[in-house]
UniProtKB/TrEMBL annotation:
It holds the Pfam family FSH1. Gene3D superfamilies: alpha/beta hydrolase. One of its GO terms (cellular component) is cytoplasm. It comes from the Eukaryota. GO terms for molecular function: hydrolase activity. Residues 3-226 form the Serine hydrolase domain. Keywords: Hydrolase. PANTHER family: ESTERASE OVCA2, FAMILY OF SERINE HYDROLASES 1. This is LAMI_0D03554g1_1. The lineage of its organism: Eukaryota, Fungi, Dikarya, Ascomycota, Saccharomycotina. It comes from Lachancea mirantina.
Length: 238
């Protein structure tokens, strides 16, 4: 069997290099299991005005010095304003040139993109097989208020097809989220999880792992080992 390969997508205000460092715990366990991990940069280059929060001069200079002013798409609290054209083109072009890939891993913004790529890989890269595994850290979808059910959310019209899970999807989808995550509250990840389980409490190929931490990729072995076991068993099942 050839070496299984995973494509990693970083979060907002990160880059490939920093995400590789921040996910060193799982990267090392995967490497030990014979899995190749490839990290790529998002296409959006952020300016200070693009941030949804304030950063002082010194912190912004650090962002520039470390070149973490990258993202997959420009932030907006209004889902229909989001534009993922460049994000999806960047990922699909990379897969066309360097693939095929056995799976995809994303954190936060990168997990939202990874979810869409998982669902639509057959359209984005014609002829590419379904991923064997999709690992979403602090993943979320693009929602808007549901006018027919006040107080509830639905996927924004613009992204309904992106977040429609194909009935024939065989990818093992793994969700990892932090109980004390303030940036992407666990409820947002659970909302996306339920899309994959089609509203059921659980599904054969969909698993969720909650950790006690915040908005991060956990690095403790006791949290990561069962996740890595799921990944390797997904590779061996195909």
């Amino acid at each position: 069997m050839s070496t299984p390969r995973l494509l990693f997508l970083h979060g907002f205000l990160q880059n490939a290099k920093v995400f590789s460092e921040k996910s060193s715990g799982i990267r090392k366990l995967l490497k030990k299991a014979g899995v190749q991990c490839d990290y790529i940069d998002g296409p959006a280059v952020l300016e200070r005005k693009d941030l949804p929060f304030e950063l002082d001069d010194e912190k912004w200079q650090t962002v520039l010095d470390t070149q973490v002013n990258r993202a997959w798409f420009y932030h907006s609290n209004i889902s229909k304003e989001l534009d993922l054209t460049e994000a999806l083109r960047t990922v699909s072009d990379y897969i066309m040139e360097n693939g095929p890939y056995d799976g995809i891993v994303g954190f936060s913004q990168g997990a939202a993109v990874a979810s869409i790529v998982t669902n639509t890989i057959h359209k984005l890269v014609p002829g590419h097989p379904q991923f064997k595994v999709s690992l979403l850290f602090s993943g979320y979808s693009f929602t808007e208020p549901d006018p027919s059910h006040p107080g509830e959310l639905r996927i924004a019209d613009k992204f309904v097809s992106d977040f429609t899970v194909p009935l024939e999807l065989t990818t093992r989808v793994l969700f990892v989220y932090g109980a004390s995550d303030q940036a992407v509250p666990a409820e947002k990840s659970k909302y996306l999880y339920k899309i994959y389980t089609h509203g059921e409490e659980e599904a054969n190929n969909v698993k969720a792992f909650e950790h006690p931490g915040g908005h991060m990729v956990p690095n403790k072995k006791d949290i990561l080992k069962p996740i890595v076991d799921e990944i390797t068993s997904a590779f061996n099942a195909h």
